[in-house]
Structure formats: structure tokens, C-alpha cells
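Weekly sync, protein design subgroup
Attendees: M.S., D.O., the rotation student, P.L. (late)

Item 1: inverse folding check
M.S. brought a backbone from last month's batch and wanted to see whether the design step gives back something sensible before we order anything. D.O. pointed out we never logged the input encoding, so this time it goes straight into the notes. C-alpha cells as presented (433 positions):
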């Protein structure tokens, strides 16, 4: 599947999610009668420009100095200061394919408030992605090694402490011919819908950095990312797609293994990556899935609700250095997780797992440092939305009520007029009636 085919699979919410990850302050607007996305917080050509993106045409119109319009991938090229349009398309494809992309260098304006004004969430039934087919699976796995002896020698999982039995349970394989690891993705029925290949060759961006004059035809022989969709072999050349990719927003890794656990506990844990899911199951958390991105698509939420989840726990990677109000990364993490909870609070209770005391490192998943650490983080998970109410609003309301009760208990001779009380407590955001 080429870039044009992949980009055609994205819906409006997918683009909004992408711009949110790019720290572009997206918000829904109506432009010339069209449902569009306005971007305010990101630089291109060295300035913070106001632009509007039309999902139906993939065109971005800039209303600042540069003026005119550009295609989606051209905007990405300018924002990331890439050398050619193909690099931008590769970057976008990485995201579509579920790769974890580092956006840390894309910093919004200092005045940004990070309010993500996405459309309200509405539950909908998400049909399982189609099976690649029994014959295709048979042909593919005839070339792969799934024996315990071989899998047990792979450093890929031993440093994380994942048991070989878990690798086999999730269909992980080793491909001797290319010295790569094969990671299948299943729909909720347990059918393979796509396969990723974990390459250990130098990444394309590293090769470009070390060998800036390398011809592009040689550069493209190196992988764009550690995990990329497995390319189809010649025997599958009549198929429409060139790789075993799939729309990441319509599938959750490990859901087929987590269905029973979600049904029994009425709770689902969302991680970012496949390894985290395997470790969770190994540690006894059989209700774990992965979105393969920071956050979750509305489709993912619907799939979990359909599986029986009444509570969803965000267990995303630690995207911040310190949990401080002036830490920009923490602000983004906090607002992103709270923003998602705000959208789905009317359907499920929402918690998040955060590291309060530096038990895990920067960019670590909450489960990367062993069962004991994860058990602690899980016990200390924070409630974001309970019973349809954001908990920060509940706490604020309780404080206001306590202040009012305190004022009401003052003896008459010490009481102030309502006007005086309002003036005294206005700075605290309390209005007495």
C-alpha cells in the first residue's frame, strides 16, 4: 500500500489527532462552509502561522505571510524542516503505520493553552478488520520460526523479561532470512489482519545523518523505523496492497487476548506498545491492550466499550521529565489525557497511571521496570472522570462548598455583607449568592 492509498484511509478525526500530536493547537471550524481544522500553534518558515486544513482535499491554506495553499505532506515537510517531499510522506506513513514518533522538538507558542477542541465522542460499533486469509497465513508462517528454542535466544524480549510462552501466545516469530522479528496483529476474533517487521538495521534517518551524500535510491533500502509493515512477497503480487499494513485506528493490539479479562473486570488498560501488553498478561493483567500511539482513537474507545469496559485506564509512556506545572512536556501529557477523559466521561470512568516519584524513566512505559513497580503505579492510578464528572471539577466544587460553609459559620457581628464577601473572595474564584 503506497502513501496515497494509506492517506485515503484516514478520517477527519485521524487528521485532528495527528495535528494534536504535532502540537499545532487544532480546533474544529467552519471555513467557506466546509468542516475544517484550524491550526494555530506551530511554526513553518520560522513563524507561527494561522492555517486551515480541509480533510476532503488534503490542502492547507495559510493566512499568514506565505499565503496560498499547500498539500498536507508539504506542510509536514516545512514544519519538520525536511529536505524533500518523500521524507515527509515517510514520516506520515510511520504515523499511519502506528510508529511511535518523537515530536519533542515541535514546540508550540509559549502562550498556548493546549485546549483540544475535538468533536464529542459518540459510541459506534467497529467491525473487525478482515482476515488476511488462512492460505496467506500458512505461506507466511512456513518461512518463519516460532520454536521456543529460537525465540528464547532473541535479545528483543529477554531484556524486558518477557517469557517465550507469551511470544508464542501472541504469534511472534523470527525470520532467519532477514534476521528480523515478525509481529502479527489480530482482530478481536483472533484473526491476523496485518504483520509488522522489526528490523535491526540502521534507520534511514541515522544513515542520512552519517552519510549525507548517500544517493536516495540507496537510502530507501534502509528501514524508516524499527517497526514497519511487512512487505508482500512476489507470490502475493496480485493483491491490491504492497505490504501487510492495516488502519491502526481500527484495531487494538491484543484485544483478542483481553476480551475475557475485560468482560470479567469491566475494566480495560490501554498501553502504547505490544511489549507492554505481553508483560501485562505475564503479570496477571489480562485486560490489557495497546493503541500503538500516545492516546487512543474514538474507535478504540468504542471497541473497549463493546468488549464490556465500564472503566478505562490510560497507561501511556512517560512523556515528561518531571511532573511539574512548568514542565512543558507534563503540560501536554496532562492536557492530552484529561482532554480525552473529558470527551468520553459520559460513557466510561477514566483513570490514568502516572509516575509521581520517578519510579520509571523518561519515555518508559509504566510496566517497563517490573511487576512490583507496575503494581505500585496501578494502585496509585489517578481518577480523571467518575460517574460522568471530571474529578478536578468535583474537587474544586467541594472546596468552594467548604469555603461557603466556613463563611456561613461566622457569628453575625463578624459577618460581612455579600458585596464585601464577594470582594474578599473574588481572587479565589468564589462567588457568594
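Designed sequence read out in the meeting:
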Amino acid at each position: 500500500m503506497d502513501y496515497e492509498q494509506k492517506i485515503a484511509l484516514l478520517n477527519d478525526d485521524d487528521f485532528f489527532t495527528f495535528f494534536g500530536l504535532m502540537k499545532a493547537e487544532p480546533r474544529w471550524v467552519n471555513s467557506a462552509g466546509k468542516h475544517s481544522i484550524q491550526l494555530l500553534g506551530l511554526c513553518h518558515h520560522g513563524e507561527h502561522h494561522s492555517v486551515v486544513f480541509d480533510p476532503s482535499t488534503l490542502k492547507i491554506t495559510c493566512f499568514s505571510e506565505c499565503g496560498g495553499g499547500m498539500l498536507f505532506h508539504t506542510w509536514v515537510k516545512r514544519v519538520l524542516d525536511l529536505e524533500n517531499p518523500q521524507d515527509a510522506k515517510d514520516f506520515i506513513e510511520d504515523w499511519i503505520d502506528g510508529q511511535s514518533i518523537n515530536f519533542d522538538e515541535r514546540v508550540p507558542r509559549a502562550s498556548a493553552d493546549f485546549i483540544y477542541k475535538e468533536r464529542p465522542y459518540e459510541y459506534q460499533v467497529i467491525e473487525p478488520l478482515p482476515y488476511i486469509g488462512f492460505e496467506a497465513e500458512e505461506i507466511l508462517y512456513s518461512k518463519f520460526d516460532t520454536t521456543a528454542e529460537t525465540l528464547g535466544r532473541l535479545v528483543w524480549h529477554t531484556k524486558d523479561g518477557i517469557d517465550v510462552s507469551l511470544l508464542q501466545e501472541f504469534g511472534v516469530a523470527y525470520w532467519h532470512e532477514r534476521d528480523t522479528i515478525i509481529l502479527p496483529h489480530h482482530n478481536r476474533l483472533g484473526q491476523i489482519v496485518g504483520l509488522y517487521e522489526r528490523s535491526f538495521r540502521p534507520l534511514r534517518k541515522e544513515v542520512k545523518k552519517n552519510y549525507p551524500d548517500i544517493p536516495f535510491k540507496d537510502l530507501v533500502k534502509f528501514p524508516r523505523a524499527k517497526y514497519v509493515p511487512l512487505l508482500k512477497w512476489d507470490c502475493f503480487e496480485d493483491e491490491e496492497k504492497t505490504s501487510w499494513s492495516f488502519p491502526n485506528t481500527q484495531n487494538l493490539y491484543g484485544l483478542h487476548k483481553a476480551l475475557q479479562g475485560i468482560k470479567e473486570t469491566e475494566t480495560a488498560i490501554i498501553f502504547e506498545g505490544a511489549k507492554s501488553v505481553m508483560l501485562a498478561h505475564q503479570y496477571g493483567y489480562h485486560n490489557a491492550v495497546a493503541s500503538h500511539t500516545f492516546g487512543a482513537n474514538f474507535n478504540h474507545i468504542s471497541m473497549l466499550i463493546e468488549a464490556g469496559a465500564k472503566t478505562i485506564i490510560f497507561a501511556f509512556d512517560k512523556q515528561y521529565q518531571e511532573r511539574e506545572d512548568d514542565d512543558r512536556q507534563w503540560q501536554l501529557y496532562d492536557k492530552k489525557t484529561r482532554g480525552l477523559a473529558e470527551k468520553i466521561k459520559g460513557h466510561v470512568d477514566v483513570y490514568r497511571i502516572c509516575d509521581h516519584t520517578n519510579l520509571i524513566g523518561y519515555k518508559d512505559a509504566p510496566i517497563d521496570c517490573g511487576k512490583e513497580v507496575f503494581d505500585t503505579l496501578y494502585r496509585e492510578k489517578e481518577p480523571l472522570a467518575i460517574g460522568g464528572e471530571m474529578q478536578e471539577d468535583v474537587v474544586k466544587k467541594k472546596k468552594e462548598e467548604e469555603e461557603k460553609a466556613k463563611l456561613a459559620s461566622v457569628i453575625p457581628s463578624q459577618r460581612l455583607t455579600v458585596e464585601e464577601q464577594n470582594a474578599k473572595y473574588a481572587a479565589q474564584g468564589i462567588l457568594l449568592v
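Discussion: Residues 400-428 form one domain. The longest helix spans residues 391-408.
Action: P.L. to compare against the previous round before Friday.
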